[in-house]
Predict the structure.
Amino acid sequence: MVMGSHVSAPGAVKLKRNTEYYLDRVVVGQSSDGTDYHSEPRVVEMKDGRLLCVHQRAQLHDDNTTRIVYRTSADRGKTWSADTTLYDPASGYAGRNPGLCLDPTTGRIIVFAREYNSGTAQVDLVYMYSDDNAATWNSPTSIMGLFGAEPVAVPFGKGVETAQGLMQIFYASDKIWALFSTDNGQSWGGLVTIHDNQQASATFSESVPVRIDNNRVVLCVRDGDNPERFYFFRTTDGGATWAGVQFGTWTGQAINTPTPLTGIRHENDVYLSWGARSPDWNLYLVKASAEYFFQAPDDVIANATRVKLIKSEASGGGAASDAEFGYSDLAVLSGIQHTVLVTWYDTKDDATVTDTNVYAMSAPRVSA
């Protein structure tokens, strides 16, 4: 594996190990041999200081065995508990696409998921919450009706706190929405359509909010039709209204078929990460000024120095496909400066497409 290298781009960069907190690559969700597919992790630090990682577990990348599980860590990611199933629909269909939101006031943890029949279509859309650091959870509550006649609404990424309340993002092939909660995640509503484009040439998919402050959020959007570029939307009123920053932000061949762009603010900076799939096979990190990222997110992605965090196990030319790597997530750890925790999933070896692990590591300290 390759850690802590960087690729050329404007500006000098120095990389070093963080003396406050350092975590080499560890396995969060260990796949057993055979058919055991761990993917799409979301990670937060809970009110009690432990880490929570919510992710999918299945036999294959996309089948009706998929369920939502979670694990915890009491030593800041060095070791992880066995998984506990959070959502596995009694219908026998898949429980998939976790969205994760932490209410900073109460510590309530909210997990969104959809019930999905891989042979037909979406069945339901639900959320669950815990008020005791993931010890117990309430029963799933359906919010499918909030989206009207829309056949698909997929939760994604992590929710953020805004001036409008807690905000969670959802997407379909040609739409992006935000839902809000003004009671610390107990109930959800106030649907806002961020984008609605019926043209087949604009097929958006996974969308992740990067919170700058209570009013300002940048939404990073993956382009389902042209995966070498990202789109960005921006709000200055906590998510009530949105405007596109610049469409068609080309990331260039150095990125190659990226997985969703995720980000988080820490101190005065934002950390951004994505996985570049075949033929690049690297997990990337960018650190930039939070203020500048809000003003020019397209410039940050196109021109900022990209740190190569790690090389995918799928890079050896075996049977593993693009689907077996990526989907990074970031978490801030209380009391720790100059770094964030990074999680992602990857094949155990490049010859196996049905065995994937969830991994975690700390980002290297990046300074100009």
